[in-house]
Write a structure and sequence with these properties.
This protein is α+β, with helices and mostly antiparallel strands. It is 49% helix and 9% strand.
Length: 572
């Protein structure tokens, strides 16, 4: 059950007209009163003799009793309470009881307070009610509404338990500010999928991902097409920034600007500066140390997979401050990967980054600096440019997504242990989007490996099956039954051809973290092995070569690749 406290208004009659009206899309059905401060309150929805004006004057009577100069300008309080789609339809009596609990818990009308604020609860749909109140008590004083939003959330958690409704994860005050009802209605009128606030938050997040200086960050904002305003101190130092969408205008046709701190707590300039001061070498917008510069999207993704894998181990076993820093930096990696990936994976990656943003903030204070490798990975992704969805670019994208799935899952487990309900739920939702993105990215490269594995000789498959049984005894039979076993078998053959000991490499790949929760254990091991052995992620360039025994030395020798004249020629 979700309570939403809307912006305070100045016209009671206007809100009454909306609550009893047809709605913006004729969605209001049978608007009627379910409860009010007085049982005799007129109901314009069910009583043909009652009028909107009667209800208006009754609610506003304490306001109008004050001298004109002492009346609060914003005196209309508005709360909506919505049940989850899967919840049973509650009766009017149930909603009436819920309305009384909400006005009592928020301080509008505490139990037993005969001079409390006047209020009315209107139902115009099966799944929610609206409560309207005027913020002057019958005794002329103002109500005490400190932290009413938090108290409303807490009461909804109790209502869910009492009525056996869907349990919504409890918040902790670290979430980004939700769009207001006015912002949502404006987005609907203009045909936007998201409000301007949400679009700006997503764009600013992507701009800060991997950035190393204020100048680079601001340049990225402008490059993304945002209008940017900065406030500079007399010393010349930057004090803050605001952003706006070029086509988001107010009634005076002026751009609507949002400060970074109003988009999300960690997008304020002071919080962003902490990322720049983590010890990572500061570079200009287009420069990086030559030793760290990515040679292309595929190399950036491979390095990302390595950094993410190390971060998974930190989240599993690290101190809380380090874990919080790694989870926050993981959000930057997701933003950077979504920004630079091909079209067939971009939508799911964008959704994963969007929902995981909630998991990057909690009351555990992150210590920046420990997340340097992940922030560098995000920077590499951005500066390597967009990736095509095929070849090594596409295959290393699948590799990176596979590693990120484990990181996000580890973050969900950590948040669950810390009882961070909303963050854990966000991480689990992000994992679902990553799973969908992985399936899109991995279908082609995994099919190539699968076909090559089907062509392996039976003795070679038996040999690598023995390696598997020795390395991961408990899960070996499950892996051998998976369709991906053929891809894993040929990957083990490739590691051997590259000069590695497949048994030792497999033991290392399976020994550092559990595998039982993976959808396809063979897929996970394929990407771990190809990354650890520095094998091409795209196996189309690798010949089908089987090692044969060298009788003189007893060692394995690789059959030579076919000569240029023996290879099939392309038909032009």
């Amino acid at each position: 059950m979700i309570p939403s406290i809307h912006d305070r208004g100045s016209e009671t009659i206007g809100l009454i007209h909306y609550l009893y009206g047809p709605g913006t899309k004729e969605e209001h059905i049978d608007p009627h009163l379910v409860a009010a401060f007085d049982p005799l309150t007129p109901d314009p929805g069910r009583d043909p003799k009652a009028t909107y004006e009667q209800l208006h004057h009754l609610l506003d009577q304490p306001v109008n009793a004050l001298p004109a100069g002492k009346r609060p300008e914003k005196h209309v309080w508005h709360l909506s309470v919505r049940a989850a789609p899967e919840d049973p339809i509650l009766s009017d009596e149930d909603w009436a009881a819920i309305a009384r609990r909400m006005v009592a818990s928020t301080g509008i009308a505490p139990d037993g307070d005969e001079a409390a604020c006047r209020w009315a609860a209107v139902r115009h749909a099966d799944d929610h009610i609206h409560i309207i109140a005027t913020l002057v008590r019958d005794d002329g004083r103002r109500p005490r509404l400190h932290n009413e939003a938090r108290r409303a959330q807490a009461e909804c958690r109790r209502i869910e338990a009492d009525y056996n409704l869907r349990r919504v994860p409890a918040g902790d005050g670290t979430a980004a500010k939700r769009p207001t009802s006015a912002e949502r209605h404006k987005a609907e009128r203009e045909g936007r999928d998201r409000t301007a606030r949400e679009e700006l938050r997503e764009t600013v997040r992507r701009a800060v991902a991997g950035a190393s200086s204020e100048e680079e960050f601001l340049d990225r904002l402008k490059g993304a097409g945002l209008l940017v305003r900065t406030k500079v101190l007399p010393s010349g130092d930057l004090q803050g920034y605001k952003v706006a969408l070029p086509d988001d205008r107010n009634g005076d046709k002026e751009p609507v600007f949002y400060a970074g701190s109003t988009l999300a707590p960690d997008l304020s300039l002071p919080r962003i500066r902490k990322r720049f001061s983590d010890g990572t070498p500061s570079q200009g917008p287009g420069t990086m140390p030559s030793a760290q510069a990515p040679s292309g999207p595929a190399m950036a993704r491979r390095r990302t997979a390595t950094a993410v894998w190390q971060a998974v181990l930190v989240i599993d076993h690290g101190e809380d401050a380090r874990v919080a820093a790694h989870i926050a930096a993981a959000g930057e990696v997701l933003d950077a990967l979504a920004k630079t990936s091909a079209a067939h994976t971009r939508a799911e990656l964008c959704e994963a980054a969007f929902v995981f943003e909630r998991a990057t903030r909690s009351h555990v204070q992150a210590v920046r600096g420990h997340d340097r490798a992940l922030r560098q990975a995000a920077r590499d992704l951005v500066h390597s440019g967009p990736a095509v969805g095929r070849g090594e670019d596409g295959a290393t994208t699948a590799m990176a997504i596979d590693m990120l799935f484990f990181l996000v899952t580890a973050a969900a487990h950590w948040h669950t242990k810390k009882e961070h309900a909303q963050q854990a739920a966000a991480a689990r939702e992000a994992a679902g989007h990553l799973r969908a993105a992985y399936l899109a990215a991995a279908s082609v490269p995994m099919n190539v490996l699968y076909q090559r594995g089907r062509r392996l000789s039976q003795p070679l498959r038996h040999k690598h099956a023995a390696h598997l049984r020795a390395a991961v005894t408990e899960l070996a039979e499950q892996i051998l039954a998976e369709p991906g076993w053929h891809a894993l078998a040929v990957t083990l053959a490739d590691t051997e051809s590259a000069g590695h000991d497949p048994a030792a490499l497999l033991a290392e790949a399976t020994g550092r973290r559990e595998l039982g929760t993976a959808d396809s254990i063979s897929d996970v091991l394929v990407w771990r092995l190809r990354r650890m052995a520095d094998l091409p992620a795209d196996a189309t360039t690798m010949p089908d070569r089987a090692p044969s025994a060298d009788r003189r030395s007893g060692r394995l020798a690789v059959s030579p690749a076919p000569s240029r004249d023996d290879r099939p020629r392309k038909i032009r």
